[in-house]
Design brief:
By secondary structure, the protein is α+β, with helices and mostly antiparallel strands. It folds into 3 domains: about 15-60 and about 85-230, no CATH class; about 280-510, no CATH class; about 560-690, no CATH class. Helices cover about 30% and strands about 20% of the residues. The protein has 22 helices and 26 strands. Strands 16-7-9-8-19 form a 5-stranded antiparallel sheet, sandwiched between helices. A 4-stranded antiparallel sheet has the order 1-17-18-2. The protein has a 3-stranded antiparallel sheet with strand order 6-5-21. A hairpin with a 3-residue loop joins strand 3 (about 95-100) and strand 4 (about 105). Helix 7 packs across helix 16 (about 540-550). The protein is flat. The termini are far apart.
Length: about 700
């Protein structure tokens, strides 16, 4: 552990009898122990040759870095995935063993010996870990149609796991028919606590925490392996490009098309958050700016957590319980919001769950209230949000909860070491000013009522008054008894910032590797000049378990239908390498897109002609199997045309027309205005702009 903090000194001597006992136990019962004997033999063979001592330090963010690079504010175990991005190179890890006969060998994360080799003390008998191609118990072997494993694939090849974790039809594995157990299925089962037996992934402190974080990284790695390994098998090309290729005599799919990239369906990827950001803006287009921004943070002292702990345990020892209870509480909080019990009737809600480096899971939630786009009333804000300390005699429970959960600081002159302090001032702008009434300032920000009524709270050796209260909703605070910040949204200037804040993505860290040299006499360390700076993705234990359990990290209501946009004959077609291009060209089904079928619906149904392409999903639903539009039976959905950059030329102007033209029956119809057919979409927009 000196790599994490080489300055730490052991608090006591190592009990040699324990070490000898562990060694003898592993020698007797662990079939993989010979692997480690080879490693120890390599160290012994070095003789007096010094062994490099490497120190890892997380460095503070530089000016201009995004909030994702903030330093951890709590102590805890986390994984640093070098590279930071969601790529195979950034997520793969190595376990290398050396045998007498075969030399160095790399162990895949899909190898059954991966976890036993990594954590011999958690698996003292060398128990097998995850294994590919394991059928679900509910599926009889004779009905298993997944087919045999290709014998040419190397044992533990990530390509094998791909067929189960990413079904051929695309989409979430949980909604598709599959008969094989995925890696996530396996680790989700292994992280279930069983009271009558110890669990290596839960019951052994920091070592178990490390194994859970490692398991999460393995799941990401296997999924990225599938995407990378199948890049050669999946191709995409415009339909017109395929037609031209066939006309030139090219009929082999291997010779045409560009490879696909990490899709937006890969949870946590850059495109995943980018698309969710645009979905949030689409909600704003329909319902206006959000009214309330609230943050719901986990409270490790919830009785549902403390009552489930074993004797001697603390909440930090059982991250699985913390995550499960928080998920239940968050679901209940969202039910209160959607039902109107929290903030009144609503029209939309959006949230993202974060972990990053703050120690506990928390959710950022945006709420749109019904009728919230009218004039802002101070009475409405005061009825929902308070920023004052309750009277201890009239409301003792409220006073106790605000004192414990909703007081900021002390910071500033009272405590210049507080984590919120940046360049000598509080980054959250506490303490606020006293104010007798709630007002909306010229910039659109709500300045809450904070009266100088003499009420104070004693915290960390200092008295804090109403100027230090974090805004809250008393009803929700009393119900959930945790930190629940509630703010009235600025509707004029910071709407886009809010959505970027809510969908900013995973946490990152900058780390520095230093090579240390020990001085023989003084025992102190000298730092070599050789240093390496790395950007890493930061995965904490709560994040790992949340993803292993399959809980959502992003949610929006109503849902958003993403609508494709393309020039005539330029719709993208996906196909496998080696496909017969003549069959693709002759396929009427592959020529159908959301846009072309919107033309068809407008031609066939008079009711469809009253809607623009962007608003079409509000009354019609898209059937992906038949590639056709059908009248919506119920529920609400918002349409969003995919973003097109202004430099895209005609495609950009086509998108603009699709936002305003109703009932178009063809591309030519879109270019027609007042009985005149224009040559380009750009020319078509000019007379409308003049009108």
């Amino acid at each position: 552990m000196n790599a994490l903090n080489p300055d730490d000194k052991p608090t006591g001597g190592v009990d040699e009898s324990i070490v000898v006992g562990l060694r003898d136990m592993l020698n007797e019962f662990n079939p993989l122990v010979q692997t480690f004997w080879e490693a120890s033999k390599m160290i012994e063979d070095r003789g007096d040759e010094p062994i490099e001592d490497i120190s890892i330090r997380i460095i503070a963010p530089s000016e201009g870095d995004s909030p994702q690079f903030s330093l951890p504010t709590t102590t805890g175990l986390a994984a640093l995935v070098v590279g930071g991005g969601f790529t195979l190179e950034a997520s793969s890890r190595d376990i290398v063993v050396c045998s007498r006969f075969d030399g160095l060998q790399q162990i895949s994360s899909l190898n059954t010996a991966f976890m036993p080799l990594q954590y011999p003390l958690l698996f003292p008998y060398g128990e097998r870990g995850f294994q590919v191609d394991v059928p679900h118990l509910i599926v009889p072997e004779e009905e298993d149609d997944d087919g045999p494993i290709d014998p040419n694939l190397a044992p533990g090849s990530p390509t094998v796991e791909a067929s189960s974790s990413y079904p051929s039809g695309g989409g979430d594995a949980s909604t598709n028919s599959r008969n094989r157990m995925t890696m996530q299925d396996y680790y989700r089962f292994m992280c279930h606590y069983k009271g009558d037996q110890p669990n290596p992934y839960i019951c052994y402190g920091l070592l178990s925490s490390q194994s859970v974080v490692d398991a999460r990284a393995c799941i990401d790695e296997s999924r990225l392996w599938y995407i990378i390994r199948n890049q050669d098998m999946l191709r995409s090309e415009h339909m017109q490009g395929i037609t031209d290729a066939v006309g030139d005599g090219c009929v082999d799919g291997d010779a045409l098309g560009k490879r696909t990239i990490v899709p937006s369906s890969h949870i946590g990827g850059r495109r995943y958050f980018h698309e969710n950001f645009h979905d949030g803006l689409a909600v704003c287009r329909v319902h206006g700016a959000p009214d309330i921004f609230t943050t719901f943070t986990c409270n490790p002292k919830w009785p549902e957590i403390t009552s489930a702990l074993e004797p001697g345990q603390t909440p930090s020892d059982r991250a699985d319980i913390v995550v499960r209870v928080y998920h239940m509480k968050l679901t209940e909080y969202l039910d209160d919001i959607k039902s109107g019990r929290a903030f009144g009737p609503i029209t939309a809600v959006l949230y993202t769950v974060e972990f990053q480096k703050r120690g506990l899971p928390h959710a950022h939630i945006l709420v749109w209230r019904r009728g919230g786009n009218g004039e802002i009333g101070v009475e409405n804000i005061n009825s929902l949000i308070s920023a004052e300390i309750p009277d201890a005699l009239l409301d003792p429970l409220g006073y106790a909860l605000v004192s414990e959960f909703m007081m900021h600081g002390p910071c500033g002159e009272m405590n210049d070491k507080c984590v919120c302090m940046k360049k000598g001032v509080c980054s959250k702008y506490f303490p606020k000013d006293f104010r007798d009434t709630t007002v909306i300032d010229d910039n659109g920000f709500a300045l809450y009522r904070r009266r100088d009524d003499g009420r104070r709270v004693y915290k960390n050796g200092h008295y804090l008054d109403n100027r230090h209260v974090v805004p809250y909703n008393m009803a929700m605070l009393k119900k959930f008894q945790g930190h629940i910040n509630v703010e009235w949204c600025n509707k004029t200037q910071v709407m886009k910032y809010l959505f970027k804040y809510v969908t900013k993505g995973a946490g990152y860290s900058k780390v520095m590797l230093e090579r240390l040299k020990k001085l023989t006499k003084s025992g102190c360390h000298t730092v070599d000049e050789v240093q390496e700076y790395l950007i890493c993705r930061y995965i904490c234990e709560y994040d790992a378990l949340w993803r292993i359990f399959g809980f959502e990290i992003h949610f929006k209501m109503p849902s958003v239908q993403r609508l494709t946009v393309h020039m005539p004959g330029m719709n993208t077609v996906y196909y496998r390498a080696g496909a017969d291009l003549t069959k693709i060209v002759d396929s009427d089904f592959l020529r159908k897109t959301m846009l072309t079928e919107w033309f068809v619906a407008n031609e066939m149904f008079e009711d469809a002609r009253s809607l623009t392409y962007c608003d079409f999903p509000t009354a019609w639903t898209w059937d992906a199997k038949s590639r056709s539009w059908h009248p919506r039976g119920g529920g609400e959905k918002i349409g969003r045309v995919y973003y097109v950059h202004p430099l895209s030329g005609e495609l950009y102007y086509l998108r603009m027309l699709l936002m305003i033209v109703k009932g178009a029956r063809s591309f030519e119809d879109l270019r027609t205005y007042d009985g005149r057919l224009y040559h380009t979409f750009k020319e078509r927009l000019v007379p409308r702009a003049v009108c």
